[in-house]
Amino acid sequence: xxxxxxxxxxxxxxxxxSRMGVDKGLLEIAGVPMIVRATRLVESVVGAPGVVVGxxxxxxxLGLRALADxxxxxxxxGGIATALRASEADWNLIVACDLPxxxxxxxxxLLQRARDSEAxxxxxxxxxPASKRGAEPLCAMxxxxxxxxxxxxxxxxxxxxxxxxxxxxxxxxxxxxxxxxDSGGLLFKNVNTPADYEEAKAxxxxxxxx
Length: 210
Hints:
Layout: E1 7-12, E2 28-29, E3 32-33, H1 34-46, E4 51-54, H2 56-59, E5 65-68, H3 76-86, E6 91-96, H4 104-115, E7 121-127, E8 133-135, E9 139-143, H5 147-155, H6 161-164, E10 170-173, H7 175-178, H8 194-204
Parallel strand pairs: 1-4, 1-6, 4-5, 7-10
Antiparallel strand pairs: 2-3, 6-9, 7-8, 7-9
Helix pairs in contact: 1-4, 3-5
């Protein structure tokens, strides 16, 4: 855990994925639901209980703190806005629940970058496909002060996360800066389809959860 500064952690629940057909967060990898895996990882970095943004009734049986989405049906941007509205911290680590390859070392680096930044969001950039740059806003740091701008974007019917950050001061972390945390080339790979899920289960098979 990185000390110093006020940081909270939020996990965006998977919702009803059209390609998966079920709530991705409840799918198990190495015997643990992905939403629980993500929460434990975030908690190990921020040193405080992670909060799931989604439907509280779904996660009550898992012992997780859950916060009802202020913007149901509006996708991840609504979840980010909800987290920033509810947060009492300065900075917020917000990650999607379906990123099983994230590591503690990478998230610690991301937190430190935010604490050293004067931006309102610190977002890694990726190359997917290799010739095209794209943001990874569902594994990023958001300052609580950026919440009103994101809510204004939602009120204008903006739904794409990167479009919702247009009014914010954004610091990007280039691939060259985070590649050292990604020896397997999977850091930001999410679980969108049954094939992705089978791949992740195979990757983590036999690994004991801490």
